[in-house]
Design goal:
heterotetramer; A alpha/beta (515); B mainly alpha (350); C alpha/beta (298); D mainly alpha (370); B: 350 residues; mainly alpha; two-stranded antiparallel sheet; 5% strand; globular; D: 370 residues; disordered N terminus; binds adenosine-5'-triphosphate; binds magnesium ion
Chain lengths: 515, 350, 298, 370
Amino acid sequence: MTEAVPVLEVKGISKRFSGVQALRGVDFRLLPGEVHAVMGQNGAGKSTLIKILTGVHRPDAGRILLQGSEIKPKSPSEARKLGISTVYQEVNLCPNLSVAENICLGHDPSEAFAIRWKQLNRKAEALLADLNIHIDVTAPLSTYSIAVQQVCAIARALSTQAKILILDEPTSSLAEDEVKMLLSVMRKLKAQGMAILFVTHFLDQIFEISDRITILRNGELVGEYPVAELSRMELVTRMVGREIAETGPSRAKGARLSPAEESARDEAYEGVEAPFLSAEGLGRRGSVQDVGLEVKRGKALGVGGLLGSGRTEIARLLFGIDRAEEGSIKIEGKSAQLSSPLKAIQHGIGFCPEDRKHEGIVGELSIRENMVLALQAKRGIFRTLSRKQQDELAEIYIKALGIKTPDAEKPISQLSGGNQQKVLLARWLATNPRMLILDEPTRGIDVAAKLEIMEKVMELCDKGMAILFISSEIEEVLCYSDRIAVMRDRRKVGEIEAGEADESTVFKIIAGGQA
Amino acid sequence: MSSPTSELLRGLAKKRVFWPLVTLALLLLFNLAFNPRFFSITIQEGHLYGSLIDILNRAAPLMIIAMGLTLVIATHGIDISVGAVVAISGAVAATMIGGQLDLSGGAQDATRYPLLLVIVVSLAVAMLFGMWNGMLISYFGMQPIIATLILLVTGRGVAQLITEGQIITIYYTPYFFIGNGFLAGLPFSLFIVAAVLALLLLLTRKTALGLFIEAVGLNPVAARFAGVRSRAIIFWAYAFCGLCAGIAGLIVSSNVKSADGNNAGLLFELDAILAVVLGGTALNGGRFTLVGSVLGALIIQTLTTTIYSVGVPPEVTLVVKAVVVFLVSILQSDKVRNRIATLGKVQEAL
Amino acid sequence: KDKIVLGFSQVGAESEWRTANTQSIKDAAAKEGITLKFSDAQQKQENQIKAIRSFIAQRVDVIAFSPVVETGWEPVLREAKRAGIPVVLTDRSVSVKDESLWVSFLGSDFVEEGRRAAKWLVDYAPVKELAAKGEVNIVELQGTVGSAPAIDRKKGFEEILKNQPKFKIIRSQTGDFTRAKGKEVMEAFLKAEGKKINVLYAHNDDMAIGAIQAIEEAGLKPGKDIVIVSIDAVKGAFEAMIAGKLNCSVECSPLLGPQLMSIVKDVVAGKPVPRRIVTEEGVFPQETAAKEFPNRKY
Amino acid sequence: MNNGNSAASAAAFPALTSAHSRPRLDPRFLPLVVTLGLFVAMFGAGSVAFEGFFSLQVFLNLFIDNAFLLIAAIGMTFVIISGGIDLSVGSVVALTTMVLAVLVENRGWSPAVVIPLVLLMGATIGLVHGVVIHYFEIQPFIVTLAGMFLARGLCYLISIDSISITNPFFSEISAVQFPLPFDTSISVNVVIALGMLLVAIYLAHYTRFGRTLYAIGGSEQSALLMGLPVAKTKILTYTFSGFCSALAGIAFSFYMLSGYGLHAQGLEMDAIAAAVVGGTLLTGGSGYVAGTLVGVLIYGTIQTLIMFEGSLSSWWTKIVIGLLLLVFCLLQKALGRGPRIKGPARATQEVNGQQRSAPAATERAAHVGG
Ligand SMILES: Nc1ncnc2c1ncn2[C@@H]1O[C@H](COP(=O)(O)OP(=O)(O)OP(=O)(O)O)[C@@H](O)[C@H]1O
Ligand SMILES: Nc1ncnc2c1ncn2[C@@H]1O[C@H](COP(=O)(O)OP(=O)(O)OP(=O)(O)O)[C@@H](O)[C@H]1O
Ligand SMILES: [Mg+2]
Ligand SMILES: [Mg+2]
């Protein structure tokens, strides 16, 4: 194999944050025209490596070589001028600017003297069209869902003539369709000789597109492998440091519990006729229309559908964030007014939102504080959890969910993306909910952690918790739900038993087949 | 190698109130260098008397307002109407007490309403104005600066309306105790400060209120999604801030034995905001420190008293103030501190 | 003939003095049957200019105003002149090159007030005694930095003391014309200078009243241990004098209403009016206070 | 599934074009239009209530009397959009008038030298603010508050007296009146202010600097990660504000022909209020320079209304100003938000052919108030 000269080479990079050694002597190289995947568990140091490459952080030790000469980028803008274009893990765009500006601002020739808006908008539209998104690019970014925002971030990275493209979990919110589009764009760029650094937790995508894989574990380099030489099993094992199954047992009949256990579970709720929550004819202008759902104790109801089909909006209605204008909600057979999230929480509902950064975490508060927030809100101001109780709670969940942090007092914004998600889950588990709404809960979570988390959730479900599970990955929905409600055009178009269905059945319903 | 003292120092340096404390100490030391009598405290008529006591006594209204404002700022708000509310509560109290000079020479030592009622009503009025702010901001979604600006303008008018543009002199001696009295040798106003501080510390550190306020200030959406009643919290923060301004108004009017609708509490809002920020609470909301704000108020008052007692000519006063504020904020900037910290480390390593 | 319309732009309502001034003008206008367009500038010159401009737009018969400062009136007064509206100044003059921009100035003389305070002080028997024995140490509470009364009252006071080598101003600080600040500054003076202070000169009564409290709290007797002279002669000052805590107050009369109205009527009638009318003002030492008190209107 | 999707996106295109061609008000301009409408209503109300109010000159006086405020408010708007604040505006105006007066009058320098000099001085003060705010990471409030004290203090150091400007250049400029129809006229200041307004609109909406400003206000962290020149832009913003303050100071000198340390007290608050009333959010990232013009006009109209009323006592003046402002803001909120809730003007986009609406955005906007 002839080794080309690396465009980008990193030697012995180390980085320490207060209390955490995020990277320790890591080497990495990126060859021209390759897609190079960086893999590792949550908190392994992938994002940190990227942030060092792009000048967000300064390394403690080590060198960065760009085409053989050493560089010391001091800011992302410097890195961009050096030809490194980046999509960071969280969507880091400006919500108040228009989509077109977010995509083009700062490097577009049409801005040279006076911004030529028409030209700018047309360019943005074209870039988005490449990714199969057709939206009004003059609208503020914040009017779009997190998935669309992610696509915009990708489009921004693609809009510059860069030598190197860095993508940190660009697909975490995307549905299959957009992912496909992105992969094909990546292939095109690769063919043009661009070097791409790609971080994702989706093994399928890795094996589909990448040429080589660098694996990190706990901030240390495990190794660099051509993708052909690594099986999925080996990859996961190297990442995690031990052998694990790649996918958990599905919820389908008999897959998790023995038939005896299963019938015992079903029997336990036999006496109670009413489902935990049932909604009828829910609707709201500009949101979903005429949605009827039943979420039963001890069962997981999946919600499938394409991007923007209204899944998140159902969750918002059920959690009292938006008020339903039509229809009714019954909890345990009694009609309930869910006029605010607090009301929903008091009814025993919990909600993990999909936009972690804006709707989930309170960035500057500590892990402990983020965890106890919902429980404390549920208890009210004066029934305060003592500091000791809080510490215990934090400790329990840090251990139970395997959150990677030196201690519970670290601000949550300093955790790696996946670990933040775990903290959010802990927040809701701490309230001891009777129903949990999970909107893309596995976003940005590594394979091992995903298993752990879903295992935990399923366990709770078996113990009687009702689950509403929303995910863009149909496969995941199929795997972790008992029944699946399918959404299209902001309406529910069908409901099926998960056990009897596979992906094609769901897609058929989405495409407008039988209900 | 690190000695236990440097370890201790480093631990202290991490505390928010450390730097305001250092600043205050520096200011006091400066005074000592200039005026050796600055620290002298004598006993006069059974109570302590001296510059330090003056500073404490004089800073009391500011400390109380700064505490109320800290809560507001922690919710990512601002209240610039505190000065006007100070004037209103003083005006209400003075008019309720009423009274006139007795021409025979002595003052008429009487009040139209019982003192307790006077205090309760003035505080209630002040709190109502705070609630008014809170309502406009949390329920009508007005921007805090505009909502409180409206009260800043209107409130002065209201205060003057109450006093009819006059300075109302108060002759009722028991009322003077609030701002002039001494308890156990210390100014009574300090006990009020202590009580407010204790109450607030209890509320924000021993109940979940502090957590909720910080969460609302940092990410209101996430806080609401986690079940925090953001609106109610914001509403009560302003209401409480109004109450604090009311208390300060009573102290001020009692201290000068009169209510001046136009001048009482003038520009207090700037001093109070400055106090909060010098104390280490960011204007962007979130993490807050009440003790820091109290220290901030002390810093400001010490500076003012220093300027008077060192004899800075009035034309230069503002320049001096500017330079000190500038130096203090540089000293408190994280950037500079980190620089100092790394320097310290290097020295230790040597 | 229609009623005369007078546009009056007041500085604000920053003190009792000002409130009395406003009241006097309002009352006088009502009495004389003159329609008063009153506008409050909230201590800002630009607001006064705006008000004058709006008076011009409303085509009033006469414009009167108490300027915040002397300077800065040329452009807007020129407009008034072009519109043919005569301008009367109250309380304080303006400095403009073209003297025809205003017809009459009615008001007190701040410099003179400062002089009177100093003259009274120099002649005051206990102070004379002090001066005979040694130095007389004066502390001064100035008005708002840069404001006209503060500058002029200081100027007039210093003018007289220039020839009195025994009299020394040892400290001078601004008390912003308020009781609270007056008290605060005096406290600091007392701590710094202790018993050295013989005399307090305050640019207005309110600061003196505040300072009196500080002096009492320091265990001294205002009016005896420290001689106090201030300016304005408002009611509060008389109360303090009756109680023996203030030694003298120099009058600065706010009751300009009746005089102003008669000027306005003359101007409209086309009669010649004097360019300068100085208001009658007295000096009220402690002894006269009790007798004078019932006559005070403000 | 691919079928379904491409069909949908094919459908999206005509939908998109039709949305473009419909002459519908862009929802983002709605608040601005509402504000403008309310201004017209307010002016109309004044015209009905007071004789002589409805005249072109009264309207033009709004510009003449508030030209310096407009200039200062423009600089303030920029700073607020970037998520900061500049409290030094009023004192820099005062300092400018003072320096102008001293150099022109007492030193006899030529205005041709002094005017550029004070502009440079203002810009430098702003530059220093910006540098300190950015590099020391100190809150803008504090830095500019110190700047405010300093500039005012320097005025007093120069002279506590007010100084008349008698220089012929200044008196002539202040006397110039550009005639307009119906026997009305405007002053040089108005021309300067409107010129500045156009420059500002260009800067805010047609330059990279302006858009970066909005980006920083939206999220400084993101702007940094997007590779935008955050440091440069932030510093430039304060420099611009300092420059505007100095320009406002020059306009002030033309307006009053005097230099004085107590000039323009509290002008920063008026400027902030004008910007905010004009629709700029104090949290940064959103607002229009044109809105600030309307804000200034509204502020001026409220004052004019009260002057025409002419019988309010000093305290009622304050109360009425506050209440008018309150009513205005409440109406602005109610009208500016109403249609968005009802639907037609709500931000609707097409994502793969499906309509979406903006709860997330409303959520954020709703929070701004608290
Ligand atoms: N700014 C920071 N301050 C302190 N610690 C940090 C900071 N950024 C990252 N860390 C820590 O560094 C470690 C590596 O984080 P990094 O974000 O690189 O992980 P990652 O591999 O990208 O994980 P994920 O897959 O969850 O995104 C984590 O333990 C994290 O808590
Ligand atoms: N153009 C838009 N206007 C307003 N809100 C939008 C818009 N686009 C997306 N959103 C919001 O983004 C969120 C996601 O939308 P929705 O619930 O329709 O999608 P979904 O089915 O959950 O799909 P996904 O989350 O994968 O995008 C919702 O809160 C939605 O209202
Ligand atoms: Mg990461
Ligand atoms: Mg969704």
